[in-house]
Amino acid sequence: MSATPTDTTGTATPTDPVLAAERAHLGLAGDCLTEMRAAASAVADAGVDAWASERLGAARAERLRALAADPHVPPFFGRTDTGTETFHIGRRHVRDSAGRPVVIDWRAPMSRPFYRATAADPQGLVRRRRFGFSGGELTGYEDELLGAGEEGDGALLRAEIERPRSGPMRDIVATIQPEQDEIVRAPLTESVCVQGAPGTGKTAVGLHRAAYLLYTHGGQLARTGVLVVGPNRAFLRYIEQVLPTLGEVDVEQTTVAGLTAHVPVRAQDRPEVAVVKGDGRMAQVLERALWGVIAKPTDDVLVPLAGRRYRVPVERLKRYVDDLRRRGRVPDDQQRLHYAAGRERLALLLAEDARRQKEEGGGSPDDAETRRAARSAEVRAFCDAVWPARDAAAVVAALLTDPAVLARAARGVLDEAEQALLLRPAARSVRATAWTPADAVLVDEAAGLLGRTAGYGHVVVDEAQDLSPMQCRAVARRLAAGSLTVLGDLAQATGPWSPADWASTLADLGRPRTAVRPLTRGYRVPGEVLDYANRLLPVIAPGLEPATAVRRDPGALRVRPVTDLAGPLTDVVRELAAAPGSVGVVCADGAVPAVVRLLADAGLPATELADDGSAAGRVAVVPATLAKGLEFDAVVVADPAAIVAAEPRGINRLYVVLTRAVSTLVVLHRDDLPAPLTG
Ligand SMILES: Nc1ncnc2c1ncn2[C@@H]1O[C@H](COP(=O)(O)OP(=O)(O)OP(=O)(O)O)[C@@H](O)[C@H]1O
């Protein structure tokens, strides 16, 4: 680091001329932003029609939202000097009234060296400057004279990571690291799979990649859209502000449950039933259940057209049906003839056959007459008998309640025990069915066989290690010709599918040749805590490279045996809650009500973190199954043995839980820790 009047917290002396100049530039950027905002609101739309006016209004509102996303966020956070030119780097472009750049968007190609340059490879930079802010004020800076072979000590990165959390996830634009930036800026055509240990920035990287792609390929992606898929609503709530603060307000963020919400989910499957329903073989079973109802034509059909009836012989009918069925088996969803379209096409083929016959007889029927023929009672009756109209929910309901339907569709695919697991008594009606989350995914698959699913230009899927093969297929259907960013950690797999490597998941996601890129530098968790959690790795994911933490803190880990949980728990939560930042008390799901009560009785303001997207308080009691993807400044793990005992992959769950803390982890146990954590 160069000799600037900057201490490790980035605070400079008030008289520093560099600081004064940078503050002036900050003032200029702020003024320009205000002007840009005013200009965006004043775009005149006089003289255009109502539709154009509405469109203009929407575009203007969009731009204003982007410019105003967060008025407290400083317009720039860094600067690059090439020796001849200086660029300030910020969240978005800022220009002065003459159109001269005042701040360069972090996603522009010119900003790349800010993230990638090193002393060994300065990429044309002589200096990189990072700024420190406090309450919107520019308070310091850190220079790296890369041209002179100097690199920073990461003090600002550390300060940024350790800045206390007060709610949702923040962006990391100011401090994206080179290995992360490579993934963020990978080309749109390239699908990537990030295998990253806890806290290596997978989620952050995925969201910044979405923002980067939208900036770089705005026109194309504005048309096709970008989709972010997360594991649950609590997680979505945690990440939902990151893209808007980066100026991207038009990204759809949802869960697999959100994607597949064709039917109301009112029940849960037993784990062994969910395993069968999530198995990739169910795709074949559903395909057979749907297409298997198509019957062979047995008789000629008389098609009415323009006042006469034309006979279409059964042999031709058979050929029409066979041809259409073959087109329904094309593997590519975009090329495939879907079931519902096949039915319409069949009706049209009959009408066109009649039309040809009429033409051969010298007539010339028009298109409207041909369409009427396709809708005639005769043709409809034929289609109903041979290619009946189907409804996705009804197909799945029949499959799961009618042993004969299931046996026909599953023969040679699922064994008898698996079929028995799937069957349940029929409800009064399809609407009255008590659907489960896994059923909803099956209904989505059936809907995808019936008709084409709209696809996005890019899909980011987080915590992908937990997706069932059928859930992967639901995501793949939304991909169309677009590309994919898969984020996950095999060691954090807690679902019954738990892949040993990424190959099967990537194949189910429809992108089998996607390269897997590891991230192993851990930003969230202090070294002492990470080393402790990593002791579980040989048991849960033997082949995986452990993460190394970018920072250490000797006081970060406290592992305490207790005989009774209540007293020590309230004591430690009281102590942690007195410091700034968030506190998460993680326990087995079943223990949550008791822990909430215990803390409330002790006068501590704890609220349960729920999967309904509602905000949790500063002290959150977190069911272990909802901890994934989240983080807190301080974490208390209450009774780890109960977390392990609660589910088949409880030891993986414990690994997830132990890696949620940014500053402090307290483990309260009853001398019953899993073997790798003792001693
Ligand atoms: N380059 C960075 N600069 C500052 N903070 C960072 C950086 N990279 C990651 N972080 C921070 O580290 C924490 C972990 O990031 P993130 O949640 O994206 O990791 P993850 O790999 O998805 O973790 P997990 O698998 O445990 O859910 C976040 O607080 C994030 O802001």
UniProtKB/TrEMBL annotation:
One of its GO terms (biological process) is recombinational repair. ATP binds at residues 196-203. It comes from the Bacteria. Keywords: ATP-binding, Helicase, Hydrolase, Nucleotide-binding. The keyword Isomerase does not apply. Gene3D superfamilies: P-loop containing nucleotide triphosphate hydrolases (3.40.50.300). Residues 175-526 form the UvrD-like helicase ATP-binding domain. One of its GO terms (cellular component) is cytosol. The keyword Nucleotide-binding applies. Transmembrane segments: none annotated. Pfam families: AAA_19. InterPro entries: DNA_helicase_UvrD/REP, P-loop_NTPase, UvrD-like_ATP-bd. One of its GO terms (molecular function) is DNA binding. This is DNA helicase IV.
